[in-house]
Amino acid sequence: MRDRKPNAKKGGWDSSDMERAVEDVLKNSVSERTAARNYNVSRSTLKRKLKEARRTPETHSCLYKPYAKTSMKVFSDEEEEALVEYCISASKMGYGLSTAKLRSLAFEFADKLDKRLPHSSSGQQCNPWVANEKAGIDWLRAFMKRHPQLSIRKPDPTSIGRMSAFNRHNVQQFYANIERVLKDRELEAHQLWNCDETGITTVQVPERIIAEKGERQVAAVTSAERGTLVTMCNAVNASGSTIPPFYIFPRVHFRDHFLRNSVPGSGGAANPSGWMIESTFVEWFNHFVKHVRPSPESPVLLVLDNHETHLSIAVIDKAKEHGVILVTIPPHTSHKLQPLDVSIYGPFKRLYNREISAWLLSNPGKTVSIYDLAEISGKAGTKACFPSNVISGFQSARIHPFQPDKWTDEDFSLAQVTDRPAPQSDAGSSAHSIPATSSEPNNVSVPQATDPVDSVETEPPVDDLTNVETPKAGSSEGGTGKPTPETVRPLPKAPARKRINTTGRKKLMSEILTSTPVKERLQKEQNERKEKRRLMAEHAERKVKQTGKKRKLTIAEQEANEVTVTEMKATCKGKSRSNKAKGKRLPKKPKKGRDQKDGKQKKVTSATDNVKRRPITSHYKPPRSPSKRPILPRKPIWLTRTGRLIIALTFSVCSCAVFMANFIDHAFHT
Fold first, then answer.
1. 340, 194 Cβ separation under 8 angstroms
2. Domain match, 84 and 56 both
3. What is the DSSP-derived secondary structure letter of residue 226?
4. Interatomic CA distance for residues 307 and 333, integer angstroms
């Protein structure tokens, strides 16, 4: 309730006194005025209670509760419990109710039940619930007090792809692949590994500090407005062990001083964007093999996500050679199935921000560079990758101990909106059918890792969620005729899928990458994509030649051109350094322009002419031809604008001097 001074004394009587007063009036024929004075109760309240008791004489004993102690209660206990269950179910499905939506639902629910709404204040002609079409703020606060299991929370933004992908079908398919590997190889805890990347920047998120109360803005020092990204890749196993981290720096060439004061054994690579790509993932895999030392006689299982850089054929070949079994998790499920995301990277981010703040405090006036991140992240990583945290991550992901049945229907509540049976494809073949996704465990058929499942739709269109079948206003659950919150406002449910898209790009799913059929299929898909890109490039080139219009460079071509320019600069710099080391002196660059001696254009050469450049297909501008205008003789100085200005200034100065001389002479004689 709001903290306000009441206008009248409501509920200032005892329920037992009110009951005795009513009984005295009804049975002993005592007047209302005398009973109110004898039992110290309000006469108007006693009159209302007597009217209610005469209307329902069999239940009048329950009407002696003061109005103020009911806390604006409109619904019965069963109806309020239905509202509480509706709020909890909606929040678990990702479509929780805000305070405004709950007040609107309460008004609609009360209207369906024909409830007596709280009376309006004096001076208002209509009921405030009816005027605003929602319950009052007093009812909401009293409702929250009566049900302490509810609270107002700030939700984490979760994409619909992540909500729909974590369903029972995808999860059981992942555990089927894990179970198949464990049965074939009989691996132990120290042979179960997980790897994942995370980004670290030179700008931290400041933690909370103690400041003066009432201050509008509190500042905390950071290195810059926007930081530089460095990718860090880690690997942990189910027994609590880790390997030294691996860093990808946003540079063209990697240098050893990038890893100064880092964890012993750390590795690194360079990429202009700072992101993990196929070539850098191959280098990380060599780093992994170096520290883990797997072999076909002592294989290991490596669980990783389904990112495109992890599907490299070179990595798969190296994995099969060294006895590493690669198993991918379904897309958008790393927050539940990846141990590093479950229990490591959350504490690591908090510790990393704290370590950067400590570094800035110990180095006042300095900024954090990418060459300091290896030292700072190493300190945070050793604290976050504690053995108990790592073991807890594998336990929470149900990988070790292997307990796939621990997931309950409540864990898949976010996928209830999009769980619906998938139709057959146009071909109608049973080999390419997808089993229905359902929240019931008995309705799920889990395919084996080698089953030819084409795709699993994990991201339904957002627009389809609005097409919800709303039952009629008079309908209700169980056929009792009594409305419920779900009949007033049904929970969202996506409609049935129309058709399976067999022409577009196939959806990714959990697979054993090192199995021969999967590897051959991936290699075939990558070759098809490369051929398609080549044909598109050739078509664009022919179109440019025919029309003469320049086409816009793609992102890949822009990155390739940037890499080429950077390599050229690095090559020139390396040549100059090598020549200086050998004692050679570089020839001076000839000046651009026309040679006045022989009247011929000299060829301008530079150190970058011998560097192999990648062909640039568009946005190419040919060098401008030299000017053909004849050389005219110079004009006299008095014919130019500057000369005329100088002459005018000289004439003005001379005139002023003559005037001043005449003025002084005249003043002297007078």
1. yes
2. no
3. S
4. 12
Helix (H) / strand (E) element for 197: namely strand 192-201
Which of 37-46, 354-363, 655-664 reaches the highest mean pLDDT?
354-363
pLDDT at 565: 52
488 CB-side CA count, 13 A: 20
- The number of domains in the chain is 4
- Kindly list the strands in the beta sheet with 300-304, ordered across the sheet, starting from the edge strand earlier in the chain: 267-270, 246-249, 229-237, 192-201, 300-304, 324-328
H or E segment at 53? helix 43-55
Contact present, 105 and 488 (Cβ < 8 Å): yes
> Do 249 and 126 fall within a single domain?
no
* 492 and 416 Cβ atoms separated by less than 8 Å: no
Of 346, 379, 413, the one marking the end of a domain is 413
pLDDT tens track for 342-376: 999 999 999 999 999 999 999 998 999 999 999 99
300-304/267-270 β-pairing: unpaired
Q: How far is CA 581 from CA 123, 448, 577, 653, in A?
A: 95, 63, 6, 63
In 3D space, the residue among 127, 145, 147 whose CA is nearest the CA of residue 135 turns out to be 127
d(CA 235, CA 190): 12
For every residue of 158-174, DSSP letters joined together read --HHHHHHSSHHHHHHH
Q: Is residue 326 part of a domain?
A: yes
pLDDT of residue 461: 41
Asked if 139 and 252 sit in the same domain, the reply is: no
Do residues 188 and 337 both lie within one domain?
A: yes
The rounded distance, in Å, linking the Cα atoms of 323 and 184 is 13
- 43-55 vs 15-28: helix crossing angle, rounded to 10: 60
Same domain, 332 and 188: yes
Q: Which residues contact 479 (CB under 8 A, 6 or more apart)?
A: none
Identify the bridge partners of residue 201 per DSSP, sorted by sequence position: 229
Whether residues 45 and 135 share a domain: the answer is no
Domain span at 117: 77-146
What pLDDT is attached to residue 618? 47
Distance CA 121, CA 107 (A): 18
**Could you say which of 388, 413, 438 is where a domain stops?**
413
Segment 304-325 shows an average pLDDT of: 92
Q: How many helices (H) and strands (E) does the chain have?
A: 20, 6
Q: Alpha-carbon distance 349 to 357, whole Å?
A: 12
What token pair was written down for 153? 């929370």
pLDDT confidence of residue 606: 43
CA distance 494 to 462: 9
d(CA 177, CA 451): 11
CATH number of the domain within which 263 lies: 3.30.420.10
> pLDDT tens, 209-254?
999 998 889 999 999 988 999 999 999 999 999 999 999 999 999 9
Give a yes or no: residue 528 inside a domain.
no
Considering the domain architecture, whether residues 84 and 140 belong to the same structural domain is answered as yes
7 found inside a domain: no
Do 84 and 43 belong together in one domain?
A: no
Say if 423 falls within a structural domain.
no
Tell me the C-alpha distance between 261 and 263, whole Å. 7
